[in-house]
Amino acid sequence: MFLINQNLATSFPLFTKELKADCRPLSWHNNGVVFKNYNMKNDMKMSFAALFVVGSLLVSCSTPAEKVDNAEEASRQAKKELRIAKEEYEKEMKEYRKTSEEKIAANELKIAEFKARISTQKATAKADYEKKVEELNQKNSDVKMRLDTFKFESKTKWETFKSELNQDLEALGQAINDFMGKDEKKK
After folding, report:
1. Number of domains the chain contains
2. Strand positions, DSSP E, the chain
3. How many angstroms separate the CA atoms of 167 and 88, rounded?
4. pTM exceeding the 0.70 threshold for the entire prediction
5. Same domain as 108, residue 22
6. 139 and 96 inside one domain
């Protein structure tokens, strides 16, 4: 509802004609008439929509300097996260290399002990043992070379490499233990 006074009606005759065409008088008040607008809900919806659009534009508008600052901050944050991830990877890689090298060294020690025992074996078994020891030594060297030459390309490749190397180390350790166990049983 709004109040139209006569001065406004004489100043803006088109406004009052349009208003009067859509409205009906509710009551007379001092020097004017109170009209009820049947389209008031639509007018309110349009007002709120316009207010929302203007408010959104004002809030979302940022200067190019602010955009640059936001981009620089995002870049710094990304670099920081990358640096942290790289440090974690390097730490994990060092720990894994250390434990793998310890397993390889233990395998080399077992192979060296077995080589020392071969010299006391019979001549017929000596050739077979030396051949088997060389095979085990070669496998151990291959695993060590794979560990030394691995270069990080992606997290997926790293996980795959670790899994395969662990399987190879376990299989090699088991083969060495089985071979040494067979030798001890023959004695």
Report:
1. 2
2. 2-5, 23-29, 32-37
3. 24
4. no
5. no
6. yes
